[in-house]
Amino acid sequence: MFPSFLPDRTAQLTEATSTMLAQNIQRQSITTPLSLSAIDTAFVHQGQGGTPIVLLHGFDSSVLEFRRLLPLLAASQETWAIDLLGFGFTDRAVDLSFDPESIKTHLYYTWKTCIGRPMVLVGASMGGAAAIDFALTYPDAVAQLVLLDSAGFAKSPVLSKFLFPPLGYLATEFLRQPKVRQQVSLKAYYDPRFVTPDAELCAALHLELPRWSQALIAFTKSGGYGFLSDRIAQVSVPTLIVWGRQDGILGIRDADRFHTTIPQSQLLWVDQCGHVPHLEKPQETADHLLSFIHSS
What we know:
The protein is α/β, with parallel strands linked by helices and 296 residues long.
């Protein structure tokens, strides 16, 4: 059985990892200073022991992005995947702001409520920028940082140039189209065989939740993480950078930029892999993460 807050189409998932992760998505009401009401926050929690690993998804994505990586990590130690505010299956109440500051505050109170001890914070793509921002503000909560083909150097979200009224709504409706999302997926993978109907459904289920369009527009108009590039050198925790050698979304230049900018960092390349090593090469990615965690 799937949780009741997931769309009916969740039953159409076919890959075992997708089905199992969807069945394990939970929601917990998190009290924050952002709203008078608690925020129903979606996450997956599996595994025991060790320093907790917390996975943050990319732009316009959800915890389902970690359907192949999370079980591999959870076999060794406690692992979480959390839907960031404004994304995935976390509630998008009408009184909330959807910007990096709100995302960071919500993540802090989620961590404080559910975890409460230093973690290994792993961010993929935009989630990497969110992880960097969080680590800079709450360094005592982050023992180690892992960036998977991370955003952080770009000055604005790609969609921002399209989101002038009334084009904000039109741009998100364009992004909602299955053929458009399929083209994005094809660009994200090195091997196009990964763009299956199951993968496309995983990438689209959260679009059916209320206020998806409004939250995406609000985040993009906020400027996203365009402020972050000048602060990346201030990251003080040990950092692992994992990058797909054939990243067709962000390219490969920023991998070396992160490595040279973050003082305590190491860079590992994943060959024959695009923008999503945690989906395309999950075992290799898990091995890199666990080796880094244990060696530190």
